[in-house]
Amino acid sequence: MKYQDIIHRCFRCGYCKFTSDYYDFNCPSYRKFGFETYAPGGRMWLIQAWLNGEIKNSERFQEILFSCATCANCVEHCVFTFSDDLVNIFIAAREEMVNKGIIPPPVRDYLKNINTSGNPYKEPANERGKWADGTSIPAYDGHEYLFYIGCVGSYDERAKKIARTVGNVLIEAGVSLGILSNRETCDGNEVRSLGEIGLFQFLAEQNVTLFKELRVKKIITLDPHAFNTFTQDYPSLGGEFEIYHYTQVLAPLIQSKKLSLKDREAKITFHDPCYLGRHNGEYEAPRKILESIPGFSLIEMDQTRENALCCGGGGGNFFTDILGGGEDSPNRIRVRQALDSGAQIIAVACPQCAKMLEDAVKAEEVGHKIEVLDVAEIVVRPLA
Amino acid sequence: MSDITLSLAQIVGEQYVSNKAEEAYFYARDPGLMPAHKPDYVVVPETVEEVQKIVRLASKKKMPIVPMGAGMSLTGLTIPLKGGIVIDMKRMNKVLEVHEKARYVIVEGGTSHGLLKACLEKNYPRLRHSVPDSPATSTIAANVMIHGQGRLTQQYGFNSDMVAGLEVVLPSGELCKIGSCSLSPEWFSKGAPLPDLSGLFLGWFGATGIITKVALKLYPRKKMRDVEIFVTDREDLVPDMVYELTHTEMVEDINIFAQPLPVIFKDNHHITLFITGDTDEELEFKRKMIWDSLDGFIKSKDGGFMSLPPVMKPTLLEMPQRSVSRFADVRKGGGFEYSGPIIAVEKYPECSRKIMELASQYDLAYSAMARIIGRSHCMMFGFAFTFNRADPDMMERTRKALQEVAEFALAAGGVYWKPTVDEQRMAIERMDPNTRNLMKMIKTNLDPQGIMNPGNWEVH
Predict the structure, then answer these.
(1) CB-based contact (8 Å) between B72 and chain A?
(2) For the packed helices A330-341 and A351-364, what is the interaxial angle rounded to 10 degrees?
(3) Residue numbers of the domain that contains B170
(4) Is the pTM of this model over 0.90?
(5) Portion 273-292 of B in contact with A at CB < 8 A
(6) What is the ipTM of this complex?
(7) CATH of the domain at B196
(8) Are B112 and B70 in contact (CB under 8 A)?
(9) Is B387 on the interface with A (CB under 8 A)?
């Protein structure tokens, strides 16, 4: 297995599961399950035991491995020199399990659906672009930017609204962009994080070929997950493009008053998406947007930026739901953290986070106290 | 589902009980070198009542119980030597009450040092507790249970000396309050002026009861902290230097480290001195007192203050010092263990020579680290060796070196700190017979079935 020379070096000291100030445990699966085995140190020791033949690939072992949200809290807080590789190690172990064909059924189903339909919902590929119906968002035709949506924004009802809002706002601000519509296919970030590296490479190469064919130079992504894989993984597969998350394009436009905004009072807190923040170091762009809206006061949760608690949707868990359910699920904890901050709105910049946190608001029965809105939706509300 | 699994699930909820191979593997071992032994069950309770019910169930079934915090003793104290139920206490992690003016805090039995530190810094910036250098996940209850030490140990003694009250689940399942809290709403004293019953639990590693609440004394937190290092190559003079330093009563904490790398550190002893103050004047006054106290050694050219590189200060000032955990990867192998006898400061030269001798004999990377306890009343001398988990031969050599440390420490008048079961046996054998009998009486009366962390502090 890749990284086999590192795995035994974990001392299981546990810094990896904290925030940097030790205010709280911040590993989503550890928060949910409570056993050390579900924390990064537990995974490291169990992977080593599995490779040594001391434990078997059981349902429990699969749950432990696939409940990792790949949120990179451990990467941020581990004290050892191999910290950067922690998530990669967990993905490599998943890859071994995928290669042996012994994985949790929801993971298998997700991967099969991507393979057969190009999306996890088993929806027809020729309906991928339907989300844009009724908007003025054009098909890509040599525009300055390709606006890449991803599977969630293309098919999930809540996320489709976000996709439309982001597209409309960018166009209103004068951005030249177009979409692939039905020609778009999965970016593969979750496929990679679930360990199906062969399928990921296929998807990535397919995308790179199409982008090059269309002479795409710059890409705006709706979803931080796509942003991550385009930035981190595609270059080594020949896909070198200028990649932006939509907040990175919108922030300077708002600051330069390309959009005029009305005054509206509200207390907002921002939930950092792991694949924008910890994985790619972008903490400022969404905040710059929110801070530019007159009347809004941006308040931070105790667990913010590199210490933000993941919504629990990363690493494929949005689709497999291994981390979901119960009071200790990370999305519900995150909503309680947001309530503690005194915010009335949780701002998000990721369609997966939006859905995860909205589900949690319902489960916590606090819809009368707090709502979840994408940054672009917040911008639209006070548009002049 | 077995009867016991079902019963445990009824107590803590199905999600928080495991008899699976994965938990059995993980909870069978700690990061040290002690042999693994699997538990039959692992549970993660959330309330005192749940702990009581688990203990009553175990008592009924005559099944061993092992309470566990972060499991970082490194000497196998949470390894279930006779199987049974491991109770992972870390879901009980709340800071319950902070009594600001009386300077004490009440925490649940699984609350980590990290959480308490963060809570105080955020809400009570003028208060602090004695943070140990074990990882931030280490729990307060476990730390006082093993008589841990921390950043305030030179001033106030072992961290267990800072306990101001306990709540304990007895082996019968009954809940017992220890200290002033047994008859007052205030938790300001663990004993005095009553008979001090905390000794029935502190230092027993859970063999007499499970701590579910701890009241811990808090201390003034000054606005500023700084660190100085006095370096000497005269190990024989270290006790005198410490004597002078402790006389000033100006130092927050005194640690001494010696290690072979980097090469500029070799054969030197680094007396690390932490100072605090609310103003620059206070800090400078303390610094001057400290410098003055060592002036004679500077003039005789037996030592001097080292100028600290900018990267080194933040590392040293961290609480806990994460660099301590990093020692585990010096050999790129994720392992370290140390024997840390509590011993007279005068024995520093012997201890120092011994660790170097053992490191050479067994070809091991070492770090000597001593922490002064009280005003030079004694010290913890850590004989620390790092090893590679993927190298069984190196692990065996480390075991042998630590066995030699155990023999050396007793011969030098030391007393084991958080001893392995083998060291416990050696200590019991050497102990005054009447003391041994008293320990046996206490254990037998409190835990007649021998279900509490069996194998530990067993007097036969």
Answers:
(1) yes
(2) 80
(3) 92-220
(4) yes
(5) none
(6) 0.96
(7) 3.30.465.10
(8) yes
(9) no
